[in-house]
Amino acid sequence: FFAGRAASRLLVGRLAEARGDLGRALTLDATHADTRALQAAIASTLNEVEDTERLAAAALAENPDSAAALIALSYARQARFDLPGTRETLETTVQSHAENAMAWARLAEARLATGDLAGGQEAAQRATSLQPSLAHAHTVLGFARFLSLALTDAQQSFDTALELDSAAPLAHLGLGLTLIRNGALSEGRREIELAVLMDPTDALARSYVAKAYHEERRGELPASQLDLAKTLDPAEPTPWLYDAL
After folding, report:
1. CA 20 to 30 Å from 146, out of 88, 119, 153, 204?
2. pTM of the model
3. How far apart, in whole angstroms, are the C-alpha atoms of residue 150 and residue 158?
4. pLDDT at 13
């Protein structure tokens, strides 16, 4: 129960409450692999790379066949910028857990990150067909369609994701980028601002809102947002790119 509630809370960004639930779950079962995997997902969200690796390893040690533990391992490898390793882990995961929608959604992300647009869209569509209520799957499908310049379909996917979870910052970011690409600058900028408000530590979202502010000629706002983005994640290249431009 506590692990399940933690997973639900994670989906809407309630990290502190999720961590509390996971602590209670571990007092009841100290070897629960899915609980360790969820802890690894939280550590990954907070860019705690070493903790992500340690918790993912613990989850796999407790249950090598756990889909959640394998997904956690993919986050650990992604945190080390090992994109081929991330994709390999997820390709293996869906072979043994073909009905796991989150595994397919994560595989879609990994395929997109390695430039496989067709494969990413295929995996995202598999995820949405397996679990139509999984907002993240629709978000990833939206990005796959956006990158393929299928903008109408992309907007539909992001709209669906937000109907399922209006507090999903990544879906707001994707919708904002799609609207801007369609020429609706102010509407798109507002969506990206929502993404920043919902996840203030996301350097990428701040970079994109800075770009929108620049296109609107909003004075010093672009520079201040890019400075924040650089501070939040010095390894993220996008704010440096936009600052140069």
Report:
1. 88
2. 0.87
3. 12
4. 66
